Amino acid sequence: MSERIKKDFIDDAKIWDLIEKGHNPDPREIREIIAKSKAKNRLEPEETAKLLNVSDPDLLEEMYEAAAKIKQDVYGNRIVFFAPLYAGNKCVNNCKYCGFRRDNKEIVRQTLTKEELIGEVEAMERAGHKRTILVFGEHPDYNADYISDVLRTVYETKTGRGEIRRANINYAPMEVEDYKKLHDVGIGTYQIFQETYHHETYANLHPKGDLKSDYQYRLYGLDRALQAGIDDVGIGVLFGLYDWRFEVMGLLYHTIHFEETFGGIGPHTISFPRLEPALNTPFTHNSDHFVSDADFKKLIAIIRLSVPYTGMILTARERPEIRDEIIPIGISQIDAGSRIGIGGYKEAEKGYIPEKEQFQLGDMRSLDEVIRKVCDFGYVTSFCTAGYRAGRTGDHFMSLAKPGHVHRFCMPNAMLTFKEYLLDYASDATREAGEKVLSKELNGYKAKYPDKGLLLEQKLQLIEDGQRDVYM
Ligand code: SAM
Ligand code: SF4
């Protein structure tokens, strides 16, 4: 490690030591760890390190089953849908893995004007989206005032029965005062991916002198967001930059750091993008640490087992067959019908898919197609944001999520938003599949919670009768 690396809660040597010590784990011990996860307890680093060393196919299968069970217990038959909105790709950094990096002259630099932004939001709404995440390159033009204006415009833009009810942000770390501005205009989750928790790899991939080269400023970036009152924060790793086992440990240590610093609040979501090819970006073809599909599945199950209460996001970077396989083992949120070119949603309506993007998406299916597919798994599609509006964020969310009560509150609201989608936007085939899922889920809910079930049935009828944004 070089001189300029200061101390923080990621101890590289200790992480490797734990991974080494976890070699050849005793199956009995692994089963005890799995039982601890199933009881919705967050694991300790020593325990996660042992799971990382499991290679026995039967034990792995038990881990997948447990991960699926935890997902079911905490989130129920429900999956939240969103779509990213790329608002500007100017960037002052030179991250070696990213198509938006400063020196990439093959990318057209663009920032949506207000009119273009409105056009994009309307196109998303016409497809049925209700939740988005705004994404930007890092640039002085994209300061907190500018981003607040973008947020305001997104919330104000409504077309037909469409509206965006929650806008999250994936952007560079900011100062407390800046986060406060975003909080005031109703930001959802603030996401910052550490990219890699390994200090030396971080230094190699983020050239010295770049704003992003300050590992600690980024590592503590979400602490400042929480201090500013933003309740929900999302962490993530770009898998493929360094050894995936180390990165899983990094995510766990980051979670523990939040819990210890903020009275038990862990990250609201964990993301695990895999490195994708990007135009004129050789590193994306040459990394020494690409994660295979098999390891990807394993790492997702281990994250699910390690932090049972946290939302997990699987993006459209992944191919449809991977998404279909992995969603059941722990995913609570996915994006679909996504376009990541600047202005990509309006272009997509014309049937044009831009090539010069940050990276290439693996899943180009429409929102309607993906929703139909998850109906096959028996899942209710949720566009729900009632939880946030009813104050179920931060520590309140955690007090529900940790013992596994989220789905009792969220399932009825998910069903209400799904009903809206089926009536307003779905194709005939998706409507038919969706109504079947809804009716099965409603019957189950009524049997379990008779009083609330009746209320839910009445609210679903209100939607049939033309009311919108109905929630419990
Ligand atoms: N510019 C801000 C930053 O870097 O924090 C936020 C937006 S950046 C466009 C969003 C995320 O894209 C990054 O955090 C990184 O994890 C991911 N990303 C960058 N290059 C990628 C690639 N080639 N494949 C997949 N994901 C990539
Ligand atoms: Fe810029 Fe973010 Fe891409 Fe780095 S990852 S080059 S900061 S857009």
Written description of the protein model:
The structure is a single chain. The chain is an alpha/beta fold and 472 residues long. The chain has two domains: 71-391 and 393-399, Aldolase class I (TIM Barrel, Alpha-Beta Barrel); 412-464. 49% of the residues lie in helices and 11% in strands. The chain has 21 helices and eleven strands. It has helices at 12-21, 27-38, 45-52, 57-75, 114-127, 144-156, 176-184, 199-205, 215-219, 221-227, 244-261, 283-286, 293-306, 320-326, 344-349, 367-376, 386-389, 394-401, 406-424, 428-448, 450-464, and strands at residues 78-88, 131-136, 158-159, 162-163, 166-170, 190-195, 233-237, 269-271, 311-314, 333-335, 380-382. Strands 1-2-5-6-7-8-9-10 form an eight-stranded parallel barrel, surrounded by five helices. The chain has a two-stranded antiparallel ribbon with strand order 3-4. β9, α14 and β10 form a beta-alpha-beta unit. α4 crosses α13 (293-306) and α16 crosses α20 (428-448). The longest helix is centred in the last third of the chain and has 21 residues, at 428-448. It is globular. Residues 1-5 have low confidence and may be disordered.
- Estimate the global geometry from the Cα principal axes: globular
- Tell me the CATH superfamily of the largest domain: Aldolase class I
Instruction: Say how many strands there are.
Output: 11
CATH architecture verdict of the largest domain: Alpha-Beta Barrel
Number of helices: 21
Distance between the termini: 53 Å
Mean pLDDT: 92
Q: Could you say which structural class the secondary elements and strand pairing correspond to?
A: alpha/beta
List all distinct small molecules, including ions and cofactors, that are bound in this structure. Answer: S-adenosylmethionine, iron/sulfur cluster
Strand coverage percent: 5-15%
Task: Determine the CATH topology of the largest domain.
Answer: TIM Barrel
The largest β sheet comes out as: 8 strands, parallel, barrel
Helix proportion: 40-55%
- What is the CATH C-level name of the largest domain? Alpha Beta
